[in-house]
Amino acid sequence: FQVKSENRKTIWNTEEVPEGAEFDDTWDPREQPEYQILFKQCVGTEDVFFGMSRKDPSTACCEDMVIKIKLPETKYSDIALDIQDKVLDLRTPQKKLLLHLPYRVDSKNGKAHFLSEEETLEVTLRVSRMFDFINFL
């Protein structure tokens, strides 16, 4: 039996722990709200009518990720939102959402907007992929 780590007192390697696992809280009884992940793409006439760019309808060509979270009976002031590069952590007195995002995002430049009449929080995040400079010239 070989031990991979150099320090034999460690229980696991950091590579074995999934990213964002430090946010998991299994003892929190609050329920998870309904949510939707949508992707947004900026297109112009050259894309739609002429097909001049390399864009297609896939998520690989989308610039933004929009997360719509239903928060019934919630006030804007009760919402605590924390966004990391791969994790969205939302907490209210009644609901809790820990969402591992499908793509890495620019966590410093996102926007959140609470639509009180629809009781929905819309979070718009810029997707940050390694080769976006190729897709979006």
Walkthrough of the structure:
InterPro entries: DNAAF6, PIH1D1/2/3_CS-like. This protein is mostly beta strands and 137 residues long. The chain has a single domain, classed as Immunoglobulin-like. Helices cover 6% and strands 28% of the residues. The chain has helices at 45-48, 132-135, and strands spanning 35-40, 64-70, 80-83, 87-91, 96-100, 111-115, 120-126. A hairpin with a 4-residue loop joins strand 4 (87-91) and strand 5 (96-100). The longest helix has 4 residues, at 45-48. The radius of gyration is 19 Å and the shape is flat. The protein starts with 34 loop residues before the first strand and ends with a helix.
**What is Rg?**
19 Å
Structure class: mainly beta
CATH level-3 fold name = Immunoglobulin-like
Mean pLDDT: 79
What general form does the structure show?
flat
The CATH class is: Mainly Beta
Total domains, how many?
Answer: 1
Features:
137 residues, mainly beta, Immunoglobulin-like, three-stranded antiparallel β-sheet, flat
Ordered list of secondary-structure elements with their pairings:
Elements (H helix, E strand, L loop, with lengths): L34 E6 L4 H4 L15 E7 L9 E4 L3 E5 L4 E5 L10 E5 L4 E7 L5 H4 L2
Antiparallel strand pairs: 1-2, 2-7, 3-4, 4-5, 6-7
Protein name: PIHD3 protein
Family: Belongs to the PIH1 family.
InterPro entries: DNAAF6, PIH1D1/2/3_CS-like
